[in-house]
Amino acid sequence: MNSETTAPVTVLGLGLMGTALARAFLAAGHPTTVWNRTATKAESLVADGARLAPTVGDALEAGGVTIVCLTDYPAVLDLLDDAALEGATLVNLTSGDSAQARETAAWAEKRGARYLDGAIMAIPSSIGTAEAVILLSGPRPDFDLGALGTVSHLGEDPGLASLYDVAGLTMMWSVLNAWLQGTAMLKTAGVDAATYAPFAQQIAAGVAGWLPGYAEQVDKGAFPAEVSALETDARAMAHMVEESEALGVNAELPKLIKAMADRAIAAGHGGEQYPVLIREFERP
Ligand code: FVH
Question: What are the tens digits of pLDDT across the range 64-106?
């Protein structure tokens, strides 16, 4: 056991995720104090060596870092409103948006706490493995949460972890929706989801490989058509809409994709490359 894993930690909130966090700390050797509104949820952790604090105040006094993982930010404020936070180090891993994170940081700092906001981009069963991505933002941490997974500090702005979280969720659901659209189309020809999945996986991996080059174009604000012009892409998008309608499957996503490209073309960007659509995404 190294000195970092002997650092005490406290976990407030023992839902599915909070329990996984506390279990990973215990497994790594951290002296772990836990508290949950419904105390019975702590039983198995206590059996594995966690200390159950009788009150939130007692939990906060246990020393070290206090991880907060509740349903939402109102629950966090509700729980900690009457607590003595002077000198505490809080890491709030509850999901929310960047405005909530910044407001909660200001609220906690006013009460004398050091506050980091965070986001967990993982499911409970992956906590404690390198696959679990934990994002932190706020003051640079002088503690180690490596027991939980792959932890990255994104910067001083406490809203950053939530912003990355929401950006990541947008990517995740967009990819899944695109896969489901293709699956619905192929099912009409008797191709099942499992047959299409490896093909879709290959496309997704290929597209992922374009991102660094496309990011360079976005950052420079210059979109030379090195591979394909947007107006060429738009012709393929028309096939996607027509095919969906002809097959009698949902055409909302193909229409949305095409409508955004059409607007950019109407604004004079038809000869540029796809990432020029950032202009559409940047608009309210
Ligand atoms: N589970 C997951 O896969 C996702 C992965 C990505 C990140 N999320 C976020 O993590 C937060 C907690 O999620 P969870 O899955 O642990 O949620 P639950 O199992 O529903 O547990 C909720 C805990 O919050 C406690 N709680 C709620 N309201 C209050 C309150 N007013 N005062 C005190 N505690 C409160 C609740 O207590 P109890 O009902 O057991 O007494 C649970 O401990 C969440 O932000 C996800 O978006 C997880």
Answer: 999 999 999 999 999 999 999 999 999 999 999 999 999 999 9
Nearest CA to ligand 1 atom 24: 70
Q: Whose CA is nearest to atom 29 of ligand 1?
A: 75
| CA distance linking residue 20 with residue 48, whole number of Å | 13
Give the C-alpha separation, 51 to 34, whole Å.
6
* Angle at which helices 230-247 and 160-187 cross, to 10°: 50
Domain 9-156: state its class: alpha beta
> Distance from the CA of 140 to the center of ligand 1, in angstroms?
26
Give the burial class of 243: count Cβ atoms within 10 A of its Cβ; 0-12 exposed, 13-18 middle, 19 or more buried.
middle
Does CATH place domain 188-281 in 1.20.120.790? no
Q: Are 217 and 273 in contact (CB under 8 A)?
A: yes
The closest alpha carbon to 229, from 266, 274, 265, 260, belongs to 274
36 lines ligand 1 (CB under 6 A): yes
Tokens (6 digits) for 193: 């989801």
Q: What is the pTM of this model?
A: 0.91
Query: Structural domain boundaries of the chain?
Result: 9-156, 188-281
Cα(68) to centroid(ligand 1), Å:
9
- d(CA 73, CA 81) in angstroms, rounded, equals 12
Mutate to test the pocket of ligand 1, among 12, 70, 100 (most ligand atoms within 8 A of CB): 70
